[in-house]
């Protein structure tokens, strides 16, 4: 859109004539008229009806006038907006991750980082895996923490840890006597499964299928935290990995090894098209330290 054309349009409506609008903008009448023609041609819309020397706004022109004012007002506010940006403190450290990585990994890493760098702002965005690829492609982050493999190719990835899938039981459950649990042992339990879009569900189903085994879910949920909450309340058992296990729940639920053996990897990648935050390396160290404690 030609902003000068937009200003001519607004001035004609405010000044009442093309001549006065042209004078206000130090333009000839023919130049002002050409600018209006450019605006009309761009949007294939008549904004004025020409009556001898007068320009009468069409219904479309009258409706467009408030929007034109808003656009020009926004443009005029840009210098003040950028002055405000420059006056503000440094941009936040931007982190994106999956919901299931929050409690056991990302929040503990953020807590450790905040103790070291208390003045650094953090922007944490949480996205389900099915939308995570879009966020990686947008590349508006400093660091992305994710299950591996990433849903986008050609990104440089650093593995944090590999953990084994375990069975989660309510504390005091009869199956706690078994050192290792299998589909046969939990078949009569209410199985709380993550939905089929999650990587953990896909991996566990694949490993069971290889050995000709299957578990029928009694409940399907979209988040691991919901599954753990149902287990804690005695509604069944679920499968998880250690990164999802919140230590605050250790007195209410217990973990047992699962067979067929199934592993899941967690790692991170750094933004590749943006200027990375100067404190990013410090946060990476916190993330690596927390993952080492977890596993």
Task: Describe the overall structure.
This protein has 295 residues and is α/β, with parallel strands linked by helices. It folds into three domains: 3-84, Winged helix-like DNA-binding domain superfamily/Winged helix DNA-binding domain (Arc Repressor Mutant, subunit A); 93-161 and 266-294, D-Maltodextrin-Binding Protein, domain 2 (3-Layer(aba) Sandwich), CATH 3.40.190.10; 166-261, D-Maltodextrin-Binding Protein, domain 2 (3-Layer(aba) Sandwich), CATH 3.40.190.290. The protein contains eleven helices and twelve strands. The strands form three sheets. Strands 4-3-5-12-6 form a five-stranded mixed β-sheet, sandwiched between helices. The protein has a five-stranded mixed β-sheet with strand order 9-8-10-7-11, sandwiched between helices. Helix 1 (3-15) crosses helix 2, helix 2 packs across helix 3 and helix 6 crosses helix 11 (280-294). The longest helix has 18 residues, at 59-76. The relative contact order is 0.14. The model has no long low-confidence stretch (mean pLDDT 87).
Main sheet specs: 5 strands, mixed
Care to count the β-strands? 12
**What structural class do you assign from the helix and strand content?**
alpha/beta
How do the SSEs run, as a string of H and E?
Answer: HHHEEHHEHEHEEEHEHEHEEEH
User: Which range best describes the helical content: under 10%, 10-25%, 25-40%, 40-55%, 55-70% or over 70%?
Assistant: 40-55%
Output the CATH topology of the largest domain: D-Maltodextrin-Binding Protein, domain 2
CATH classification class of the largest domain: Alpha Beta
The count of domains is: 3
Order of strands across the widest beta sheet? 4-3-5-12-6
Our Rg estimate from Cα atoms comes to 30 Å
- Please report the distance between the alpha carbons of the first and last residues: 57 Å
CATH architecture of the largest domain: 3-Layer(aba) Sandwich
As a percent range, the share of strand residues is 15-25%
Give the count of helical stretches: 11
Q: What name goes with the CATH superfamily of the largest domain?
A: Periplasmic binding protein-like II
- Global morphology: elongated
Low-confidence spans: pLDDT under 50, at least 5 residues? none
């Amino acid at each position: 859109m030609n902003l000068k054309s937009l200003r001519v349009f607004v001035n004609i409506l405010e000044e009442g004539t093309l001549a006065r609008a042209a004078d206000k903008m130090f333009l000839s009448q023919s130049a002002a008229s050409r600018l209006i023609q450019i605006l009309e041609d761009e949007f294939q819309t008549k904004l004025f009806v020409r009556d001898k020397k007068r320009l009468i706004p069409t219904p479309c022109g009258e409706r467009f006038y408030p929007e034109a004012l808003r656009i020009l007002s926004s443009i005029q506010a840009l210098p003040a907006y950028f002055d405000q940006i420059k006056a503000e403190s440094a941009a936040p450290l931007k982190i994106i991750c999956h919901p299931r990585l929050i409690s056991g990994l990302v929040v503990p890493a953020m807590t450790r980082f905040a103790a070291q760098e208390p003045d650094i702002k953090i922007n944490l965005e949480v996205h389900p895996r099915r939308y995570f690829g879009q966020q990686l492609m947008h590349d508006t982050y400093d660091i992305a923490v994710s299950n591996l493999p990433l849903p986008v190719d050609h990104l440089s990835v650093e593995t944090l840890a590999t953990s084994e899938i375990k069975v989660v039981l309510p504390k005091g459950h009869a199956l706690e006597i078994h050192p290792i649990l299998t589909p046969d042992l939990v078949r009569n339990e209410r199985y709380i499964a993550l939905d089929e879009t999650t990587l953990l569900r896909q991996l566990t189903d694949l490993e069971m299928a290889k050995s000709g085994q299957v578990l029928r879910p009694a409940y399907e949920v979209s988040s691991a935290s919901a599954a753990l909450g149902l287990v804690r309340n005695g509604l069944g058992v679920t499968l998880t990995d250690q990164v999802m296990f919140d230590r605050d729940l250790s007195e209410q639920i217990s973990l047992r090894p699962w067979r067929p053996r199934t592993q899941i990897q967690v790692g991170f990648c750094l933004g590749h098209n943006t200027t990375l935050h100067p404190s990013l390396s410090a946060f990476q160290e916190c993330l690596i330290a927390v993952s080492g404690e977890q596993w």
